[in-house]
Design a protein that fits this description.
The chain is an alpha/beta fold. The protein is built from eleven helices and 15 strands. The structure holds threonylcarbamoyladenylate (TXA) and magnesium ion. The site of magnesium ion (MG) has 3 residues, from loops.
Amino acid sequence: MAEIGIDIRKVKALLSAGDVVGIPTETVYGLAGNALDEDAILKIYSVKNRPKFDPLIAHTDSLAKLVKLVKEIPPQAHELAQAFWPGPLTILLEKKTVVPDLLTSGLDRVAVRIPDHPLTLELLSGIEFPLAAPSANPFGYVSPTSAQHVQDQLGEKIPYVLDGGMCRVGLESTIVGFEGEEVIVYRLGGTKVEAIEEVVGKVRIQVNESSNPAAPGMLKSHYSPGRKMILGDIEKNLSELNPKTTGIISFTESFEVSDENLAVLSTAGDLEEAARNIFSALRKMDQPHIEVILSEFLPQEGLGKAINDRLRRAAV
Ligand code: TXA
Ligand code: MG
């Protein structure tokens, strides 16, 4: 089992020696290693059981460090960085040769982000190299939002999980890139599209459904709680099923099933709260007695867009 704690010095030593560890961010927990060290990157792919065609995000704590990784930061990227970093936004930029092809799966752009978590910012400020960090879950499974989630699934394979408590946002970062003057959103996430548009004007949302050359990892089937999941009118669907073996993830309402079969995302109907809870809710449904999960779409606005995206992929 991994040790869980807040010993930043120890984590620095492990990372400097080429090891990989669990780290907290405001979005989800990451499985971190030296982004400039091919052996560390290979370890990440192997611990996650992730195909190497699915590239990784490089995390730093400052623009000064980030400019060493990318050829240039275009004006719109600067504006977005100014507005949202540290925070749940990842930006695709042309990479310098110092960035291993293994990190970007051979693509010309590298995904970069300054995360907003005090422990991880402190960690990053104490190391010279950027950290590659995909979400710390086995490939295809639900992303982790607590140190225990990481322990539960990867604890046998890594030495340490830095414990930063529950993730404040609960959904992965929004990913953006540029085609000429146009800003493209490749993954819906913790930074709302509406907020991005306030900074750079209208964006194009190009979230893939099957395979997208710009973001090959955003596979249609992901975030799988390991059961059949049905989206739609919960009440109606429940009437045709056995409530004992049915799990329910609802936005605001309770249903006639036992507490262990129910997760209400936000009784107050708050989308930020729902975002914080969605991955724990999917995990909660991963119990042997549950055969089917029922859920429903949330309002398609703000973080609701990203939550609906995760539900859709979990249901594939
Ligand atoms: O919030 C987050 O972004 C979390 C925390 C730990 O920072 N990380 C995360 O990483 O969600 P991951 O690996 O689970 O998802 C990263 C996504 C993948 O879908 C991948 O395909 C895409 O980013 N990506 C990474 N590098 C890319 C690149 N160079 N071009 C296009 N897509 C890229
Ligand atoms: Mg992931």
